[in-house]
Design brief:
The complex is a heterodimer of chains A (240) and B (239).
Chain A (H helix, E strand, L loop, with lengths): L1 E10 L2 E11 L4 E5 L6 H8 L7 E6 L2 E2 L7 H6 L1 E4 L11 H11 L5 H14 L15 H13 L5 E5 L7 H16 L3 E5 L3 H7 L2 E6 L2 E6 L1 H6 L4 H10 L1
Chain B lengths: L11 H34 L3 H16 L2 H17 L5 H27 L2 H9 L4 H31 L11 H12 L3 H29 L23
Helix pairs in contact in B: 1-2, 1-4, 1-6, 1-7, 2-4, 3-4, 4-6, 5-6, 6-8, 7-8
The chains are: A alpha/beta (240), B mainly alpha (239).
């Protein structure tokens, strides 16, 4: 479903990704782990072209994302993204945060979009917060709204960029629970995370990125219990 | 020397006309200038070089040259060249103030937009919004709040700078004072009156700006915003 070929990303002289090849199949949940600055977030952001790709290519359902002829806005409607800092729109209430993109981009009637929003809010456990503004919510609640907002476009893939890293510890679980639910429903997901427990439990495959290279990948069992590469061992040794 | 304000009474029509001209020039110049400034501000932020550079040059020119020079250039050179004759002081004055104001407000718009967290634009784009839609729905509504104080300053500055149109014989407040000074051979009374009139106008502007600021610079939550005309100093905190 998503195919990454020889992906290189550099900022001027600094090469962050040094040629990554990977393929994600439909309904797979991939967890990307690695140290800070290893390039794992950049890898994720190249998939929906939030970062310009320097070299190589990314395909989503056989459409080349970094082709000048591709309508990137069209691609992005099928790729939901959840950010570390939530990035909810502070000037809109929760309901409008969720309905704005279906109404403005999918041209969905307002009524229908609101029904969809309430359905999604129920799913993330925030039915009673529809009329609240982001500043009135806790971090965990904001992140769940952000997930609902991304889901409102009915994406085929969801990208999560360290979704729990900015949260207070007691709020991490409520967000992870929503993500587990999504995974169970068969959503294709790529999750950049430091939550090894989540990766072990939910991921179909775990990818370890270090220094801009995809160093090792495998099932959670293979990576966490029996890592082969020295760098993977060193990284896991530090955090587990 | 005795100060005699009563002699000014004979010239009251001149001053009243002056107030209208000053107000008219300021309002037209400011409104058009801010709208035009939005275009130049967005243009300056554009990644397209052929949009970016002309906007930048425009802003640099109008911020880097004196308004007095701009007024004279427009009134004596630009307009007569284009139309073959003068269109009167009001048109020239309003255009000069508009162009000058647009350059300053373009920078205010640019700074306001750039001050927003770039995650806002990323979130909007990641949902599939094209750049223009994201700008209109997500960025500008938030950026506008941050622009209220500097745009307010710009209004007051423009109101005062509008006195420079006196040089093209625009009959504004300062012009009235000059005429009276010339006719009555008195300097204190007419110029003090002019100062007081400008002060009153800027005072009204300050009040309007303070109100707009209060409305927009607080919370996004409607129920936490101060009421339109509230006499209490504190915002209801739910108790």
């Amino acid at each position: 479903m998503i195919k990454v070929e020889g992906l290189v990303k550099s900022y001027g002289e600094l090469e962050v990704l040094k040629g990554i090849d990977y393929e994600v199949k439909e309904k797979e949940v991939i967890c990307v782990i690695g140290a800070s600055g290893s390039g794992k977030s950049t890898f994720l952001r190249c998939i929906n072209l939030l970062e310009e790709i320097t070299d190589g290519s990314v395909y989503i359902e056989d459409v080349k994302v970094n082709d000048p002829k591709t309508d990137i806005n069209q691609i992005r409607t099928d790729v939901g993204m959840v950010f570390q800092q939530f990035n909810l729109f502070p000037h809109m209430n929760v309901l409008s945060n969720i309905t704005i993109s279906p109404i403005k981009i999918r041209k969905m009637p307002e009524k229908e979009a609101e029904e969809l929003a309430y359905e999604l809010l129920k799913k993330v456990g925030l039915s009673d917060k529809a009329m609240n503004y982001p500043e009135q919510l806790s971090g965990g609640q904001m992140q769940r709204v952000a997930i609902a907002r991304a889901l409102a476009m009915k994406p085929k893939v969801m990208l999560f960029d360290e979704p729990t890293s900015a949260l207070d510890p007691e709020m991490v679980k409520e967000v992870l629970d929503v993500m587990k639910q999504l995974a169970k429903e068969g959503m294709t997901m790529i999750v950049v995370t430091h939550e090894m427990g989540f990766a072990r439990e939910v991921a179909d495959r775990v990818v370890f990125i270090d220094g801009g290279y995809l160093v090792e990948e495998g099932t959670p069992e293979e990576i966490f219990s029996n890592p082969k590469n020295e760098r993977t061992k060193a990284f896991l040794g530090k955090i587990l | 020397m005795s100060i005699r304000f009563d002699i000014l009474w004979n010239y009251k029509d001149l001053f009243i006309r002056g107030i209208w001209i000053t107000l008219g020039l300021t309002i037209v110049g400011y409104t058009c200038g801010v709208l035009l400034g939005l275009l130049f501000g967005l243009g300056r932020l554009s990644k397209k070089k052929w949009v970016h550079y002309p906007c930048k040059w425009y802003i640099d020119f109008f911020r880097g040259t004196p308004l007095l020079v701009q007024i004279l250039l427009i009134h004596l050179a630009v307009i007569p060249t284009i139309f073959g004759h003068s269109l009167g002081f009001f048109v020239s004055g309003a255009i000069a103030l508009m162009l000058n104001c647009s350059a300053y407000s373009a920078e205010i718009f640019r700074a306001g937009i750039q001050s927003l967290d770039k995650g806002q634009m990323e979130a909007a784009r990641s949902l599939g919004m094209p750049h223009g839609l994201a700008m209109k729905q997500i960025i500008l509504p938030q950026a506008f709040r941050r622009m209220v104080p500097p745009l307010g300053n710009e209004l007051i500055a423009l109101l005062k700078d509008s006195s420079l149109v006196t040089v093209i014989a625009a009959t504004d407040i300062l012009y009235a004072a000059k005429v009276v000074a010339g006719a009555s051979f008195r300097v204190w009374e007419p110029y003090i009156l002019a100062a007081i009139l400008y002060l009153m106008l800027t005072w009204v502007c300050t009040k309007i700006i303070a109100y707009v600021e209060k409305r927009f610079s607080t919370s996004y939550v409607p129920s936490k915003r101060p009421k339109a005309f509230s006499f209490s100093r504190t915002i209801s905190d739910g108790r």
